[in-house]
Amino acid sequence: MGRALDDIYEQEVTSLYSQISVNATQVLGLKCQIGHLDSTSFHTDGIYETAQNEKAFNSEPDLTVSTNNQNVSNTETDLFALTNDESASQLETDQEIDSLRSKEATIRLESTFQLETDKETDSLRSKEAAIHLESASQLETDKETDSLRSKETVIHLESASQFETDKEKDAHAEVINITKGYSRDHRPDLNQVILQLIVENQAGIPILMKPMDGNSDDKTGFRETIQTHIKQLMTAHPLKYIISDSALYNEKSLQTLAKNPDIHWISRVPESINEAKEAIEKAELSEMTVIDEQTRYQAISSNYAGIEQRWILIHSCQAEKRAKHTINKQCLKASTANLKAFNNLCRKTFSSKEEAQEALQKFEKKLLFTSVEETEIKVIPRYKTRGKPAKNAKPDYYVYQIEGYLSTSFRYREARLKRKSCFIVATNEMNVDALPDPEVLVQYKNQQKVERGFRFLKDPMFLADSLFLKSPKRIMALMMVMTVCLLVYAALEYRMRQSIKEKNQTFPNQKGKLIKNPTIRWVFQYFVGIHVVILGNIQTTVTNLNEHHLNLLALLGKRYEAFYY
Fold it and tell me: What are phi and psi of 341, to 5 degrees?
């Protein structure tokens, strides 16, 4: 398997997979006009180096196996050695004394030899000077010739060295760096690798896969993919739209997309953009257009990053319901903590009115869900003598305390609830007839096709939830093989559903209800329990086949039926 993965890597995994996906989409008759771009992480078990140490990995086995027996053997050897240390200590001391004496004798011999060598060197230098004087003219001529040859040789060597260096850099640039990064698996303690996919929207088949460094940023990674592969994708597939999450929506990426006027994009606008915050704050639900009972929208024009685009501001009742539950919990937690902190502040005394006001202002800056109302700085006299002061006694000094109460800030709560209930989807397709406003939301929701593919790749029932290969090159090749498995899975499900739809047939789901869109995962489970019974050389029988099995096999075609008849 390892050698097969090495052969796959040598073919360049992204280019090799692209050829496979083109053939698959042509066989299935997919249009591939819309591509969904997203990425996920796979954590790895083991210690990995950078691409420069790839040679060291090639000599190591693929799987890391514990060697408990070897550890036990080493421990026994260490114990045996410790028992012999005491008996050998005297012998080691005698050997050290003999060694010191031999070193002293050697130093004396070296000093004598060095003196004789210096004398011979001076004699040789004087003879060499005489020879140089006699043949100076001949040497100058030879030096000029040798200099030209040496320069020519150095130039060739430098060119060859630079060529080898460039080759090594190119080779290392192709190998991913397995390292720690933002983990979608919630395992930040492990190294990881990023897999980036572009999936077509009809069958959910990946048309592009790209392994990336474990610490890759989606904003940078999406932009690099667009720069490198968008023209290739548009040549192989009639792509019209690229759809992605908010990682695609930044100034640099949008300007990169603008260089390809034939491609349009749909992306979610990040909530951190000030223009988006202002648009949500100004939105009025009563003025929005109703899509259905749960969704409303409002179209807004924008020129973010110098690019003309449409913003579809969407309000979701389901999102509002979820946001209410979350915000109420946050409000209760914050209010309880703020009330406790405010009571402590009111019990504290200050030496001046200004100091008390400064502490109050500092406290108010931290408040979000609450606000301080009817505050007052109270002056309290203090006496140095004990007990109750006399009726006309003058205070020795004064202290200051804060008085007031906390109230819930409904304005902040409603604004936060509104932001969590609304989101903005942007597109640079300005032709409303080609892409109506409600269709923008429909296509953006199809982004779940990529997430569904990632769930398949990480499901231990099908493939693996972690990688154990030692070589980064083999990990890259394995990720291509995993993506091919996803392609086959999605293609089979698409063909099955299309056949059921065309023949107006149904298939039972997990509850026994007849449906027209079963998942291929459930179909696999439904076919579990079918056995082949062989009676000598006389008869072969397939058992436990029912009506639903036979109908589905007939829909898929004779090649599928041949395995069961």
Answer: -65, -35
CA proximity to 260, closest of 302, 223, 207:
223
By the 8 A CB rule, do 295 and 315 touch?
Answer: yes
DSSP annotation string for 277-320: HHHHHH--GGGSEESSSSEEEEEEEE-GGG--EEEEEEEEHHHH
How many Cβ atoms sit within 10 Å of the Cβ of residue 293? 7
Q: Environment class of residue 153 by beta-carbon count within 10 Å: exposed (0-12), middle (13-18) or buried (19+)?
A: exposed
In SS3 terms, 146-194 reads as HHHHHHHHHHHHHHHHHHHHHHHHHHHHHCCCCECCCCCCCCCCCCEEE
Q: Give the containing element (helix H, strand E) for 269.
A: none
2-49+180-313+430-492: CATH number: 3.90.350
121-164 pLDDT, tens digit per residue, is 555 455 544 434 344 445 454 555 455 454 444 334 344 444 34
Helix-strand-coil split of the chain, %, nearest 5: 55, 20, 25
3-state secondary structure 191-246: CEEEEEEEEECCCCCEEEEEEECCCCCHHHHHHHHHHHHHHHHHHHCCCCEEEECH
Is residue 48 classed as helix, strand or coil in its secondary structure? coil
Reference 176, options 193, 191, 189; nearest CA is 193
Helices and strands counted in the chain (H then E): 17, 15
CB 379 within 8 A of CB 341: no
String of DSSP letters for 416-456 = HHHHHHEEEEEES---TTTS-HHHHHHHHHTTHHHHHHHHH
479: closest CA among 28, 44, 22?
44
Residue type, position 120, single letter:
E
Structure pTM? Answer: 0.72
Neighbours of 309 (CB within 10 A): 21
User: What does the pLDDT look like over 44-86, one tens digit per residue?
Assistant: 876 655 444 444 444 444 433 333 333 333 433 343 333 444 4
Q: Residue 372 is inside which H or E element, if any?
A: strand 370-382
Which tokens hold the place of 10?
């040598």
Q: Which two tokens stand for residue 489?
A: 């899975």
| Helix/strand/coil (H/E/C) assignment for every residue in 311-353 | EEEEEEHHHHHHHHHHHHHHHHHHHHHHHHHHHHHHHCCECCH
Residue by residue, DSSP assigns 463-474 as S-SSB--S-HHH
Q: Which residue has the tokens 């492990």?
A: 190
